[in-house]
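Q: Hi! First time doing this. I have a protein sequence and I read that you can turn it into a structure. Is that right? Here it is:
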Amino acid sequence: MDGESDARNDADIAAELRRLHDVTREMTAAETRAEVLDVATAAASDLLGFEFNTVREHDADRDALVPVAASPELRAVGGERRPYDRGESVQWEAFDDGEIRVYQRVAAIGDDADRDGDGSMVVVPLGEFGVLTLGSPRERAVSEGDVELARVFGANLETAIDRVDELATLSERTARLRRRNDRLDRIGGMIAHEFRNPINIALGVLNGLDGDSEDEQRIDAARRAVDRMDRLTESLLDLVDHDAIGGDTAPVRVDELAAATFERRCPDEAAIHCTASVTVEANERRLETLLERVVENAAVHAGPEPTVWVGPLADGGFYVADDGPGFDDGPGFDDETTESLTAYRPANGGDPGGLGLAIVADVAAAHGWELSLTISRVGGARVEIATGGAPDGRGLTRRGG
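A: Yes, that's right. Below is the predicted 3D structure, encoded as structure tokens:
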């Protein structure tokens, strides 16, 4: 007879575990917290044998355990449940110490909560979220097996709640990012229209003017100012367009691209020395933007006759160095300093350098490269881009154009 009883108990336990697995799978498939709680409160009666059950969430602002879901049976006989303020009910004990509470006779509980009739109750903590109360209108012997099943059920419920909360947070962040990208796209269109048209008009007027030597000096100054505005416009457009590169890459000669960029951007008195050829896997247009910003930074800060060096890094990648005054922060560089120099900040005196290094950092990050800033051997600025590739080839030297 005892053997038959043990076999039946084993079969009952196996059936309960199967039902627990099915309920857990249904809870983890839910897409909202409300769906998770509906599954949990509906399943607790059948799975655990407690038809009166409530899920309470801790409201940190009020410091109360607020009911957020209840089983259909409890709603039918008891109506809406009220919140429990701190210390008002035994649910708080389970919540505060994270331990299950078992009450074989509800009538014997000595707290301030109003309870009609008698019965049994189990309170299961749900971590920082709140508690699950399992109740029955009948007195019953709550066994160790019941407690262990309730413990596993509560842990699975807590996990399911955390999962849907994380999904909701991710969805909100995705929507916020989409709205921000839409705004950036509109800003890019505004910049292209509102800035470029006046710049083109101003250049057309300047190019058509004839005057004496003093007028020519003023015209040249105005033309340089318009050119700085044009470069700033390009920098702002690059700021808008800094998405990840994806698979749109090909092998690109950094030294040749840097030399061509230098000729377009720097005065005749400037010089560039490419110490060795460097080929990297890159999006050529975006790499050109990066080199424009670095070369332009050297041309702006390294004096009337800047010299720029481009060469390979030993572990893959390339550097661009100049003979200017270096970075304002001095020779000591760490992650915090680099982050400060590459942050988006207003340009000083119409100089787009404040955006330039930030755009360099964005383009490098989009390729999966590592950017570092340091001092060159002649005391100027040195920008290093580590790509993980291998350097190759021989160098070339060009004057600015």
